[in-house]
Design goal:
heterotrimer, A alpha/beta, B alpha+beta, C mainly alpha, A: two-stranded parallel sheet, 3 helices, C: mainly alpha, 13 helices, 0% strand
């Protein structure tokens, strides 16, 4: 199955297809580097000035990596993928020799979406890669990358604790930092209990 | 009398039945580490499975980040890992400065480096004393704390605190250093070098310690990469990854130091990495003091109300335990939209379950001690 | 004058009275030592760690052990639910009694042995094995996983180190030709070059023999670096976890008394007992001053050894469990067997 490579649409939810195979059979030829401004988080803001065109540090990768100004942002490459592509992205970066930095979520309540952000870093050269994806807020599900990076086990448990995002295929999605019987997800923007 | 109902029979990997029982290490430890509970399934003296259970000191720092302004969040950063508080503050302050494109004056950068390296030495001293306490040598802890007192006194003179410093500010520092600090630091460096030699000959070369640590708790390079382990853990497995060299920040690119790396991957390698790092930190401090420029310690035009432009910003520093990274997501307001703290001890501990399978209990504890965990760092 | 009063009292009811006085003296001595060895340990530990140690209670902290004893006495003796009540209560007593009995045969001076029996050495080692069993019973009856792990470790360590110790003692019996402790001491008369430590013409490895005995003594009394049983950072308090108040206090006292016994035995066997290291200064052994002098030399040597035991505890980290057992089975036993064979060969040659 070829991965579709869309631009994230502001204000619309990304469909998740749980039956889709997460890893494609053969990589597609690389698309040219897209010179576009990084997507703004809230739709009400005017789009910032377009970032300078920087070379894609992973040109051979069949995912839409964009070069990012390290001095301004702190990372070198950024890709926005669909939720079913995250495992493919993880395998790809594993082959490149990167290591998993962290997995976290951002609750964009106004857009009705949750963003899952995967940070990777290379242990030998200065290369920080960010892979993002957006899932609908009412039913946040995303496949786990735990089989590729075992370290993701704890990061995904923590993200589930804080946001309620279900990682499909995770062996043990019990509360990691919150008490064992916690049913709330504190980092959601509508969490008001104390 | 040992409670027959507590013994379970499991089938081992090779098909043979094994009687196991579950023992709890913590959350209250006679040794240090903090409040960590490790559920160990034991087969006699062998650890079948060790599952760390975290969350006993979870304070939800990341939610606090969403309820405070950038300046108000500064004290929180010191309390994530209280032993190397200054480097964590550096990470957060660096992220905000990167986003605002603030130019920090060079004097402030040098002072930040000097104090961060002093903090690194004091953190490694606590690790060393506590690690030896775990292994049964009670005395080095007090020698380490003796040295650490001198560092704490130096830092108290300029920051006012002994442990959780709120010294860095967005744009520079809160206070300039004075001659007492400079002379005191030089004196400290001069007396610390022979102390490190003494520790080497008395403790590191001790045959009992060597037997306890060599070939114990091997962690491969691949395991480090898969779990995201950084700091002395990955440097003890042969990979010279140090954020100060790979993604240089502040003035580290102007300073001459070596990143100690050992190939073996056992507990002794991680031990030696940290002992060498203390010596290297002394070098950095000396060079920093020699090259210290004159000038202001605070940037000139720091806006009163800090509003970062929308987007996300990252900054990574090399803390005493490994790579600490901050990711701030902002929506152009005074308070951040999301603050993500990537802490080294969490990634370092996540490999404990796989690395300690099949080890003897004292060896598993030596491994855990050599990972240098600070539990509030894991739980935040 | 004192002598004549003493002789008068003795003539009334000689042997039992002497024994009772002796045993009361021993119990007092052991009690005082168990308390004040705690002080020695705490002060020694403190000085090795560059801090002052107890200074508040009494001058230089000398009343501290009394304060500790009062604290322990005032605690409730908790017997947890579900333990084996008899064994739980008996274990501390079982650990304390063999020591008291063994101390009855040690010659503190030429005429200051409780009961100078011909098989004194054998009696001490017969009683010495009981303390391993006592810790095991204490750990077993506690119904606590940490305690049981610790008890298992103690048994395996105790058995492993019993063997080289006995081999060494057999070597010394061969070398000296007797099991009577007072005779062993008498053979070491003269200056310190007559001590068994330097008796290399009979046992060429005499200093090594002393070293093996010393290491085995450290291991039998569960002192660091061989304190696997009580490895604090791993097993909380090991076999003693469930004991509170004076139950723990008795275990504690028994540990120090064992150290006392071990060092006293090492002094008798290797360092000349009550013999003075600089030869006979005063000729006549019947006067009171000579008795006191003998006692003084004995105590000086014994306390020197005890101080070295404390010193070693605070200097070295703990060994690995298999390292500990390897040391015993693979190193100490072959070496002590070798010295045994060597000594018997030398004895044959000398004859």
């Amino acid at each position: 199955m070829t991965p579709n490579l869309p631009e994230p649409k502001l204000g619309a939810a990304q469909p998740v297809s749980p039956t889709a195979a997460p890893a494609p059979a053969a990589p597609v030829p690389p698309k040219p580097a897209v010179a576009a401004a990084p997507p703004s988080p809230t739709p009400a803001q005017p789009a910032p000035a377009p970032a300078p065109v920087l070379p894609n540090p992973l040109p051979h990768a069949p995912l839409p990596f964009k070069g990012v100004d390290y001095a301004a942002k702190g990372y070198h490459a950024d890709a926005t993928v669909t939720p079913d592509q995250v495992v493919f992205a993880a395998e790809l970066l594993d082959k490149e020799g990167l290591s998993l930095d962290t997995i976290t979520g951002v609750d964009w309540m106004a857009e009705g979406q949750m963003e899952v952000v995967y940070d990777y870093f290379h242990p030998a050269k200065a290369l920080r890669v960010v892979v993002r994806t957006r899932i609908p807020r009412d039913n946040p599900e995303i496949p786990t990358i735990q089989k590729v990076f075992p370290g993701a086990n704890w990061h995904e448990r923590e993200t589930h604790d804080f946001f309620g995002i279900k990682f499909l295929g995770h062996p043990n999605l019990t509360p990691f930092l919150l008490p064992e019987d916690a049913t709330y997800h504190p980092l959601r923007k509508d969490f008001t209990q104390c | 009398m040992l409670v027959k109902d507590q013994l379970k029979t499991e089938i081992a990997a090779d098909g043979s039945p094994r009687e196991t029982f579950v023992i709890n290490l913590g959350p209250q430890h006679p040794a240090t580490h903090g409040v960590l509970r490790v559920k160990m399934t034991m087969d006699g003296e062998y650890v079948v499975r060790a599952e760390p259970v975290c969350g006993y000191i979870h304070r939800m720092q990341e939610k606090m980040g969403e309820n405070r302004t950038y300046a108000q969040f500064l004290p929180n950063t010191s309390r994530i890992d209280y032993l190397s508080a200054l480097t964590y503050t550096h990470g957060f302050v660096g992220a905000v400065e990167r986003a605002l494109k603030l130019q920090v004056p060079p004097r402030a950068e040098y002072i930040r480096v000097i104090t961060s390296e002093l903090n690194r030495i004091s953190s490694h001293l606590v690790w060393w004393g506590a690690f030896l306490l775990d292994l049964g040598g009670f005395t080095p802890l007090l020698y380490a704390f003796d040295d650490r007192e001198k560092i704490l006194d130096l830092l108290e003179g300029i920051t006012g605190s002994r442990l959780t410093y709120s010294y860095f500010r967005i744009g520079g520092l809160y206070n300039d250093i004075d001659d007492t600090f400079i002379n005191g630091t030089r004196a400290f460096v001069a007396q610390m070098r022979p102390r490190l030699k003494m520790y080497r000959s008395l403790v590191t070369d001790n045959i009992i310690l060597r037997k306890r640590l060599i070939d114990i708790g091997p962690i491969t390079e691949e395991m480090c990469r898969k779990y995201g382990a950084t700091g002395p853990v990955i440097r003890g497995s042969g990979v010279p990854y140090d954020v100060r060299k790979v993604e240089p920040y502040s003035v580290y690119s102007d300073l001459d130091f070596v990143v100690p790396t050992f190939e073996e991957g056992d507990s002794m390698a991680r031990y030696l990495v940290r002992m060498e790092e203390m010596a290297q930190s002394l070098r950095i401090i000396e060079q920093g003091l020699d090259k210290l420029p004159a000038g202001p310690v605070m940037a000139e035009k720091v806006p009163r109300v800090l509003k970062l432009p929308a987007g996300d910003y990252c900054y990574a520093v090399e803390a005493a335990r490994g790579r600490f990274a901050v990711r701030i997501v902002s929506d152009n307001k005074e308070i951040p939209y999301r603050v993500k703290l990537r802490t080294p001890s969490l990634s370092n501990l996540s490999l404990f379950e796989e690395a300690s399978a099949g080890m003897l209990l004292p060896d598993a504890l030596a491994l855990m001690g050599s990972l240098d965990l600070v539990i509030p760092d894991i739980d935040r | 004058m004192i002598q004549s009063i003493w002789n008068f009292i003795l003539s009334l009811w000689p042997e039992p009275l002497r024994l009772v006085l002796f045993l009361a003296g021993i119990m007092g001595f052991v009690g005082a030592n168990a308390a004040y060895l705690v002080w020695v340990e705490r002060k020694g530990a403190a000085r090795f760690q560059r801090r002052p140690g107890p200074t508040e209670v009494g001058w230089a902290g000398l009343v501290q052990p009394i304060a500790d004893a009062v604290k322990l006495l005032s605690k409730q003796l908790i017997v947890p639910a579900g333990v084996d009540r008899t064994l739980f209560r008996v274990a501390p007593l079982l650990m304390m009694s063999p020591v008291l009995m063994s101390l009855a045969v040690i010659p503190w001076g030429q005429h200051l042995a409780g009961r100078n029996i011909n098989v004194g050495l054998l009696m001490i080692f017969a009683f010495g094995s009981v303390n391993v069993m006592a810790i095991m019973l204490g750990g077993w009856s506690s119904r606590n996983k940490y305690a049981i792990i610790s008890a298992a470790r103690v048994v395996s360590q105790g058995v492993a180190y019993e063997i080289p110790m006995l081999l060494v003692v057999i070597t010394m019996i061969m070398v000296t030709g007797t099991m009577n402790l007072n005779e062993i001491v008498m053979q070491q008369a003269g200056g310190f070059w007559h001590w068994n430590f330097f008796r290399v013409w009979v046992n060429p490895l005499a200093p090594v023999t002393f070293l093996i005995f010393y290491i085995c003594m450290l291991a039998e009394t569960n002192r660091a670096p061989f304190d696997m049983a009580e490895a604090e950072s791993e097993l909380v308090a090991g076999a003693y976890t469930e004991y509170s108040g004076m139950g723990f206090g008795v275990f504690f006292m028994a540990e120090y008394s064992n150290i006392l016994l071990g060092c006293a035995l090492a002094t008798v066997l290797f360092l000349g007992g009550w013999q003075s290291p600089i030869g006979n200064l005063l000729g006549n052994w019947q006067s009171t001053l000579d008795v006191l002098l003998g006692l003084f030399w004995f105590l000086a040597k014994m306390y020197f050894l005890i101080f070295s035991v404390v010193w070693i505890r605070w200097t070295f980290p703990r060994t690995q469990f298999y390292g500990l057992l390897n040391l015993s089975w693979k190193i100490l036993i072959p070496v002590s067997l070798f010295t045994l064979v060597l000594s018997s060969a030398m004895l044959k040659l000398l004859r």
